[in-house]
Design a protein that fits this description.
Aspartate Aminotransferase, domain 1; binds pyridoxal-5'-phosphate; alpha/beta; four-stranded mixed β-sheet; Aspartate Aminotransferase, domain 2; 2 domains; 14 helices; 437 residues
């Protein structure tokens, strides 16, 4: 993070991180790796993570008082930056009436109506507390309604940290899957087949076996960097899953309410059987959702036989925060997000390509790839120069821009970014790419 104010020229000396370093040492004694989610440890880039003291609009302030423009936004949720006054007011109002009931409330009804009105694939929706839960429940539902056990996921796509989706492809043709972590039974991993992104033939080969309950994917993956779907790819998956009696689950935890009010499904005009939401819908509080076609959602308990539950599901604070964000997400906001994205791209693309790297943007998500060609799938992302990415990341942070600490994560632009902040991030990232060489 930068010790200098945003308007000043960056100082030559790297900013001090003494307090963060001390906290990280203390954290490592009582929290594995010092963090409550692995990528926060900055293991993929040089140096230790700054500990965050507070957020102010689009900026983070760390424990040493350094400031950085935040392009992570809590990994996607904070589309209006930190401590947005409308979201805070909604949370505080809700909290005064009690923080949890474990019983139905009117807010949940209105929120569900708002979600169904916003997203083209939602006829019914159920709330839960994390994206991991949303994909886990959606997959169980798909297995429950089809009576089939196999799921197909795509290489490099991330759907949370439960067993069925933490499965990586084996080398070569992705016919045999292996667990992505010790602790995942081989028998569970064997039920997940993988295919490369943007390759319809590979998915069709799995579907042809007739035992696939669902194909799950990120419509615009942002967990291997940001990659756009090839023209016709999403439509092709829709057609193939329907032909083979499998459900299409579009995981919009990241893209929902980011690429459009109706998510990637609205932006690309694609229909899904089930959709997963999270991140933005919770307004920065723990909330996620899964939903879709009524004929499937009605199979959920207590209406139907497929079990799903959660003590804090539909939590009143999280629902209030989510509703406050949805109220603010007007067509003007999406127009502004596309404008901001275009301005960032106009500033960055030329210099980044001139430095031998690739720039990919979809809406307000973007990635700088340390490879001359923009990737189409996970194999291509893995060819990036990860050491150079690490130098780039540190240089950006030292100059006051907080980028995701991994080549495999997309950056997010908030709708509240000012022209001065766009200019700051463009100047800093160009410099960081240059010094990383
Ligand atoms: C973040 C993410 C998840 C997991 O959500 P959590 O709330 O971290 O459990 C699932 N799918 C996608 C596409 C995500 O980006």
């Amino acid at each position: 993070m930068s010790a200098a104010p945003a308007s000043a020229a960056p100082s030559a000396a790297p900013p001090a991180h003494d307090r963060s370093a001390a906290l990280f040492a203390e954290a490592r004694r009582v929290i594995p790796g010092g963090v409550n989610s692995p990528v926060r440890a900055f293991a993929a880039v040089d140096g230790d993570p700054p500990f965050i003291a507070r957020g102010e609009g689009n900026w983070l302030v760390d424990a040493d008082g350094n400031r950085a423009l935040d392009l992570i936004g809590s990994w996607g949720p904070l589309i209006f930056g930190h401590a947005d006054p409308d979201v805070l007011d909604a949370i505080i109002d809700a909290a005064k009436g009690g923080t949890s009931f474990g019983a139905p409330t009117e807010g949940e009804v209105r929120f569900a109506e708002e979600l169904c009105a916003a997203h083209p694939c939602l006829e019914m929706v159920r709330l839960c507390s994390s994206g991991t839960e949303a994909t886990m429940h959606a997959l169980r539902l798909a297995r429950g309604v089809t009576g089939r056990d196999v799921i197909v996921k795509l290489d490099g796509h991330f759907h949370g940290a439960h067993d069925a989706v933490l499965v990586a492809a084996g080398s070569g043709v992705a016919t045999f899957a292996r667990p992505g972590s010790p602790g995942i039974p081989a028998a569970v991993a064997a039920l997940t087949r993988t295919a490369p992104y943007n390759d319809l033939g590979a998915v069709e080969a799995h579907l042809a076996k007739g035992d696939v309950a669902a194909v799950i994917l990120e419509p615009v993956p942002g967990n291997m960097g940001c990659i756009a779907p090839a023209p016709g790819y999403l439509e092709g998956l829709r057609r193939l899953t329907a032909e083979h009696g499998a459900l299409l689950i579009i995981d919009e935890v990241m893209t929902g309410f980011r690429l459009a009010r109706g998510g990637a499904c609205a932006r690309f005009g694609v229909d899904a059987d089930l959709v997963c939401l999270g991140k933005i819908v919770g307004g920065g509080l723990p909330l996620a959702a899964f939903g879709g076609k009524r004929i499937f959602m009605e199979k959920l308990s207590p209406l139907g036989p497929v079990y799903q539950a959660g003590t804090l599901s539909g939590n009143p604070l999280a629902v209030a925060a989510g509703r406050a964000v949805l109220r603010k997400l007007s067509p003007e906001v999406y127009a502004r997000l596309d404008e901001i994205g275009a301005a960032v791209e106009a500033g960055l693309r030329g210099p980044i390509e001139a430095a031998g790297c690739a720039f990919v943007r979809v809406g307000s998500m973007f990635t700088v790839y340390f490879h001359p060609e923009a990737p189409a799938d996970f194999e291509a992302v893995k060819r990036c120069d990860l050491r150079r990415f690490g130098r780039f990341h540190r240089a950006a942070l030292d100059r006051g821009v907080y980028m995701p600490p991994s080549q495999f994560e997309a950056a997010f632009l908030p709708a509240t970014l000012t022209e001065a902040e766009v200019a700051h991030l463009v100047r800093v990232l160009i410099e960081a790419v240059e010094v990383s060489a």
